[in-house]
Amino acid sequence: MSWPLSLVLAFLLTEAIEIPVCFIWGMRRRDLVFVLLANLLTNPVVNVLYALAFLYTPIPRAVSIAVLEIAAVLTEWLVYRSATGAKRLFLVSLTANAASYGAGLLITAFLL
Prior knowledge:
By secondary structure, the chain is mainly alpha-helical. It has four helices and no strands. The chain has one domain. Helix 1 (3-24) crosses helix 2 (32-56), helix 1 (3-24) packs across helix 4 (90-111) and helix 3 crosses helix 4 (90-111). It is 83% helix and 0% strand.
């Protein structure tokens, strides 16, 4: 699979998981566009940096994943909070990212 296609598929999977999770947590429909925008900001960056770290540094995978996922959670939380004005969205961001990461692990396990 080509690198650009894998980035697009990762982004689409992320949206398919995270938008419903955020909706279930009570985000208003009109605010879900910010989930898409936050992921547009974080998803490609996380995936590219993860690949670069894996290929070109001695950093253990678990450390790379933890640092990048924490950065994504915090960034998305700040986007949600800034865009919606709601204050209690950290758990929404954390849950949405955990769900999409878990789904990615499952899909990868079945495909490889």
